[in-house]
Amino acid sequence: MQNQFFFKLILSVLGILCFSSFGLSQNYFKAAVDSDKYFNQKIDRFSNQDVLIVDSSLEPLETGEETGEIAMSRLDECGNEVWSQAHVFDEGYLEFADFKISENDEIFVFGSYYKGLQERIFLAKFDGTTGANLNFILLNTGTVDHFSYSIDIQDGQILIYGLVFDFNTAKLGFVAAFNENLTYLFGKQFSPFESTGNAIIAADNSFLGWSGEYIVKLDTNGDLVWAKEIEISADIFLVGGPFEVAGGYIFESNRNEQSFFFKINNQGDLLWKSDQFKANGYGVALSSLMDGNIICTYNYPMGNISELCQMKLSPDGNLFDQRSMLFDHTFNTGTLYQSLDENNNLTIAGNSNPISLGAVDAKDFLFQLSLDPLDENCWAWEYFEETFINNVNLNLSPYTIDIEEMNMTLESSTTLDIASLTLPINELCGEPVGSTLMQRDTLLPCDENWEVTLPGIDFEWVDNYPGNQRVFTDPGTYSARKMSCTNPVTVEYTFSKSNCGCQVYIPNVFSPNFDGVNDYLEFFSDCIVDKVEMNIFDRWGEKVFQSTGSDQFWDGTFKQKDMPIGVYVVLVKYEFTDLDGSVQQRFVTQDVTVVR
Fold first, then answer.
1. Is 436-497 a domain of CATH 3.40.50?
2. CATH classification of 504-594, choosing from 2.60.40, 3.30.70, 2.60.120, 2.40.240?
3. Distance (Å, whole) CA 280 – CA 284
4. Which residues lie across from 536 on neighbouring strands?
5. In this predicted model, what pLDDT tens digit does every residue of 94-145 receive, in sequence order?
């Protein structure tokens, strides 16, 4: 399937433009080649700051195929692929709506399923480390039509939010809750409701959502807390939010390509509204900064193209630090999504404007930049001031909401097939770079250690050893890397010691069947061993035996039960006195097979 997912583009390690500042800064700009489809790729971040992009293709709707997929790419801190996978469902079309990553780095994806006139909601769970699909469920809402809006997760509870309706019925909103095993907890449906919206799980674990001109807050059981109607001009629409901040929630409204923010408190009362600013109405991407301000990324409309712009929003609703990007590429972007990492790097996913008429060369893109001051040589920011007095008469008033239990049933549970991802990309900023490998090795007498110092303060040990200097006592290979994306360097230190004349031996097979032959796993040495510790692990890493004396042997049991035949790992640490009188410490590890 061609042109189905922009970030299928992350299929090979690509060069990126990257700059150094305090911490790790990595800037890049990537775009799909010949992208002529409308996508809605969204992004979220893993605990190690890797980025995940998820989307689905609209092509089956255009071709009539009844095969749908969920496409995912995990990117490292420099925008290079960790893995990319497409998960395919051959029995119908899957339309991705939204996803979230849980605290333990599991991925939860929500969307709609179509097959002919049959429509369902799907919820899928994936392993964040490998991308493997762990579960995929189809849910029947009992209605003929629906729209999937958003998903959120907090404290082990998952919220999905959307619209359902039937023939000759009004539109109904729904909220459904699940646990992380995708077990249905409860669901509520309510009206009035409109055809656009979004919802979050708030810090107090309540649910807050909007649709059209309606804002609803439900408690942790899905019961009504309050409902407010936004009394506003007919041609002004909510396009963004809720975005939770200290003391309440921020929303965005737009009218005739002029947007403004407003904030409500936890009771739904209006606190402030900002000035207006020019934006294309697809919603501003927001991220909270450490100083309490909010960084806002948005599209500034300019006829058939747009400019990528940023500004800051203060806690009391002031707009400042407006700037537009000067870049040798043209945009006409629709939806924007962004995520801010711990190193002050902002990752932005831009999606094509479906009603774009102009010829642009950066329809779908992934852009990462540091918020710290930098001297860029690929793009630049031009500061400007353009806000307008907000004369919109905005009021929020209570309204009557009809709410009832929702009938949502599990129709099927399975796992998805995996397909490859192929879509070329262009690096819009910078040339591809390769990684430099530096190797250092030494052979020392058995009674000496090796002290090394890393080449610079911008290097760090791969195994997270702290400090720039290190003393190696045990032979092996130790790696460090330079935290750079334009000039990545890996240094490998290989440390060897000469043989001190103490040979050890562990059998690689033994048969604990008590026939008098090879019934115990023993440790042999041709020298006097002062101390020895033997540890044995099964294939899953569980320790099944430990001894701290040379006269203790494994009989193939664990907790007085025979262990199954198979391969186990033996780790022996021992200490002996060398011929020169020095005490030496060594270890040996190997596989051992149990047969009976």
1. no
2. 2.60.40
3. 9
4. 545, 570
5. 889 999 999 999 999 999 888 777 789 999 999 999 999 999 999 998 877 7
